[in-house]
Amino acid sequence: MAAVAERVRAGRGESVRSVLTIVKREVRDSLRDWRIVVPVVILTVFFPVLMSLVADVALRWVAKYGAPIVGDRLLPFLLMVVGFFPISFSLVIALETFAGEKERKSLEPLLATPLTDAQLYLGKTLAAMIPPLLAAYLGITVYLVGLYFFEGWTPPPILLVLVPVLTTAEGLVMVSGAVVVSSQTTSVRASNLLASFIIIPMALLVQGEAIIMFWANYNVLWWIVLFLIVVDVILVRMGIHTFNREELLGREIDELNLGSMWRTFCGYLRWERWFFGRDVQKMPPGLRWLGVLGGLYGRDIPSILRRSWLALLTVTIGIVASAFIGQVFAARYPLPAEMLGLEYISAETFSEIPAVGWLPAFTIEGVLGNNVRALLLAALLAVFSFGTLAVALLMAPLAIVFFFVAQAAHVGYSPALFLVAFVLPHGLLEVPAAASRLRWPSVWELPLCRLPGE
Amino acid sequence: MMIELTGLTKQFDDFVAVDQVTLSVAPGEILALLGPNGAGKTTTVRMLAAILRPTAGQAFVAGYSVTEYPREVRRRIGLLTEHPGLYLRMKGEEYLEFFGRLMGLDDGERERRARELLARFGMPEAWDRRMGTYSKGMRQKMALVRAMLHDPSVLLLDEPTSAMDPHSAKLVRDAVLGLRHHRRAIVICTHNLAEAEALADRIAIIRHGQIIALGTAEELKMHLLGPPLMELRLAHPTDGVVKLVSGLVKIEAQGENWLRYSTPDTHETNPLLLQKLASRGVGVLTLSEVPRSLEDVYLRVVEG
Fold first, then answer.
1. Which positions in chain B touch A37 (Cβ < 8 Å)?
2. ipTM for this prediction
3. Is this model's pTM higher than 0.90 or not?
4. What is the CA radius of gyration of chain A?
5. A179: domain range?
6. Sign (positive/negative) of CA torsion B27, B209, B80, B141?
7. Closest approach of chain A CAs to the CA of B277, in angstroms?
């Protein structure tokens, strides 16, 4: 037993050593490339100093107009910016990581070593992250030191923790996303072209963070950190899962193989006929439909559920988290009892609800249409975010639902009854559809093209 | 057997790159894989290196299945790829340290092996030079050093002497032959037919993913070009000699004082023929086999 444990420990040690060997080589290679080093140094040293000076000038300028709050909010915002700019470089390194090696023909010797896919993937990911991340930390330090000397400003302690954590999480999202892109494309050019799938969501996220920084409600940023960590975990896991030596070497050009995609898609909609071990073809023609149903419910759906255990677990965690959030907000902002007069609900109750912006009318068609719209949007976002935004989008309304469930419970109604009345009817259509949205990242696994290696 | 392939097949969608390949390589044996571009040589080697997964069939390398124990296989093979694929910003020392670590060599062993191999290939100065400054031949040799660094029991070499000057090519050929004596199994993919003939114990010609000829160079020549052609040069004109020997051998061509003949069994026929000529007082200047190149065999096979 001790010998087995020793072997397991030795195996782990070897794994870590292999990952570190790759990290060391890649980092050294990056640091020898002046095209990487020069911009990183500029962003690490020059840019934060410039930001300190800009902040100094801006503080004095806004103070002249009696708006010191603008300056107060600007300093944390710039703190976030000086951290973000250097890590944006991690994207450049990461996009090049597999595609570049393939272009330079150095990938095959590496694939012929005893490295596992996970070791190779993790080594590359860490190597793309470490230099820009260290540069980001240094940039933050330079900025803070500069501001301390110019303005005597020190950030609130929460920011000292939050900004580096946020920067790290953002860096990991960009890198892990870029490594996925790099491992699925044939050239650096193709990687760069596909980088918009990472840049656009990140740009939107940073804009959102900027608003929160000016709002100065820093606790909200922890939710973004949590979201980014979830995305990180999914991206890294998916990256390792979809990493394929064969595809890396065998694929010569990127082309959208619509025929193959369509065949794969149709494959998901086919299932084997089965009816308790009988030969369905030999059953009377009028009863063969039993084989269709038997195959679907007896074989296909249980198999999908088994394969989707992680997606189901994620949704379950999402639901529990939504329930918790709804509960917390309900306790914090209790509604007056008269607002929840559930005994007197009639068709008119819904039709009399005032229209709210883009929300639909409270009719059956309106609610269903809205939910279909939400599911389509979730499906679209799932493609871009590897499923995570679909969870976020669909769990947010659930938090609102649980908010009302908790309010109902607070004024004496049965929360179970509330759920059965208002949520369960959606279980017929929307909930199964929502669960299936979580599998949309599998679109990424569709073969873009298949060409022979030789 | 160090390499054993049974019905090995690789299919990419509708394209069959390697089709039912069955062959084996013993320890100390060198097998040359010949074939036109796109014949399936590289795909076969990639499957042997456990980089590509076979669609069907089995492949065992150093006793390990490439599908079940790919890491064990990769530990035991040295792969020289078609392109050297070096990291040009690294020094030779750093590069070999990197691959040595990945192959699990300890520091002392790694440096000893690296320096020894660099010296063997006549480039000890490559140790502390950036690989971007190497010549084409040096890069190829460095890639070979990388493949041999961990002293693998199986070497898979894709065009090992391409881009090398004749001296370097000879060094490499000598090194490969030296490995044969150390009981290593070696597979060489090459377009250099003379090299294949000089190095390989057996030759496999592959076309459209299938092995269409397999054997020693002599066996292939015999099988595909027929019995060897002998040339007899005489001290006198051939008048009368043709009649004398035509019962023994088949005359293929003749000149004033020479003739060429073929016979299925040279070992038996040639002494008889010489004996007959000597008994009649015919002066023989030379008796030699007309050289037949592997290129003739290759072209015969590949052109169908």
1. none
2. 0.84
3. no
4. 27
5. 2-250
6. positive
7. 56
